[in-house]
C-alpha cells in the first residue's frame, strides 16, 4: 500500500481475484477505501488508522459486511510503500 497526500493506493490478489485499493485517509485517521476486483464487484471499507501501524473497521458489500484489519509493516524509506496484510472476517 502507498500513502501520499491523504490518498491510499494498493493492489493485490486474493481468493476472489486481482484487485486495486483506492481511498482516502484523513489527518484524524479516518479511512475510506474501495477494493475493486478487476472486471468484478467492489467492496467498501471504512475505519480508522491508529497512527502506529494498524487500520481497522468494517467492510460492506450490499447486505453483507464484517470487520477488517490491516497491519502495516515498515516502509523501505524511498517509495513510501508499506507491506500490509488484510484480515477480513464475516
Would you write up a description of this structure?
There is one protein chain. It is built from no helices and 8 strands. It has strands spanning 2-4, 7-13, 18-25, 30-37, 42-49, 54-61, 64-72, 84-88. An 8-stranded antiparallel β-sheet has the order 1-2-3-4-5-6-7-8, with no helix packed on it. It starts with a strand and ends with a strand.
- Number of structural domains: 1
**How does the helix and strand content classify structurally?**
mainly beta
For the biggest sheet, the summary is: 8 strands, antiparallel
Strand order of the largest sheet: 1-2-3-4-5-6-7-8
Order of helices and strands: EEEEEEEE
Our measurement of the CA-to-CA distance between the termini, rounded to an integer number of angstroms, reads: 23 Å
Mean pLDDT reading: 85
Low-confidence stretches: 78-85
The fraction of residues assigned to DSSP E strands is over 45%
Shape: globular
Strand element count: 8
Total helical elements: 0
Helix content: under 10%
Roughly how many Å is the radius of gyration? 13 Å
Amino acid at each position: 500500500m502507498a500513502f501520499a497526500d491523504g490518498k491510499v493506493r494498493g493492489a493485490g490478489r486474493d481468493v476472489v481475484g486481482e484487485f486495486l485499493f483506492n481511498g482516502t485517509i484523513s489527518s484524524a485517521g479516518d479511512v475510506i477505501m474501495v477494493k475493486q476486483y478487476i472486471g468484478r464487484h467492489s467492496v467498501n471499507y471504512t475505519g480508522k488508522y491508529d497512527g502506529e501501524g494498524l487500520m481497522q473497521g468494517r467492510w460492506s458489500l450490499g447486505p453483507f459486511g464484517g470487520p477488517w484489519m490491516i497491519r502495516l509493516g515498515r516502509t523501505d524509506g524511498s517509495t513510501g510503500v508499506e507491506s500490509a496484510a488484510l484480515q477480513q472476517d464475516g
